[in-house]
Amino acid sequence: MQLVDRVKECNGCEACVVACKYVCVKMKEDDQGKVPEVNENGCNKCNACMLYCPLYNPVELPEFEEFYESKEDVRKRDMAPIYRATMRSVKEGRHTEFVGTLCQIAALKSLRGDKLAHNLAIFPVYCDEEQRKSSAACAACRFYK
Ligand code: SF4
Ligand code: SF4
Ligand code: SF4
After folding, report:
1. Taking all residues of the chain, what is their mean pLDDT, rounded to a whole number?
2. Tens of pLDDT, residues 132-143
3. What is the number of structural domains in the chain?
4. What range defines the domain where residue 91 resides?
5. How far, in Å, is the centroid of ligand 1 from the Cα of 44?
C-alpha cells in the first residue's frame, strides 16, 4: 500500500523522503500537488516514513507571532535536500536559518526527533485563506484551526 494512502491529507512536506534510509520514497506531482510514491521493490517495511510523518505522528510547534514574507513560493521547493542541509548545519553547531510553511517546519522538527535547536532560527511563512482552500491537505491543515 502506498504511503499516501495510509497518511490521509498528505501535504507533500517530504519528511518521508528524508526518513527513508533505503531511498525508496520519491515525490511525484498529481492534481493535488506533490505526493510521495514508494518503490515497493526497495522497501524493507521499516516504517520510518510513517514514524517521521508529522501527520501520522504529530509534532507541536511553538506559537509564532510574526510571519516572514518570502518572494519565492516556498511550497514549491524541493524540500528533502533543504531539510538535510539544515540538519547538517545545525549538527555542526552553525547558526542556521530555515524559511518554511508551518507544515515544513513540522517536518523539520519531526526529522530532528521532535526538537528544534538554539542555533536554528525559524522564519515561518504564512498561508492565507486562499492557500488554505487550495487542496484537501491545506483545507485540513491543523496549524490554522
Ligand atoms: S517502510 Fe522504510 S524502507 Fe519502506 S518506504 Fe518507508 S522508510 Fe522506506
Ligand atoms: S511525511 Fe509529509 S509528504 Fe510524507 S506522507 Fe507525511 S505529510 Fe505526506
Ligand atoms: S495550509 Fe497548512 S498544509 Fe497547506 S501549505 Fe500551509 S502549512 Fe502546509
Report:
1. 93
2. 998 889 999 999
3. 1
4. 3-144
5. 6
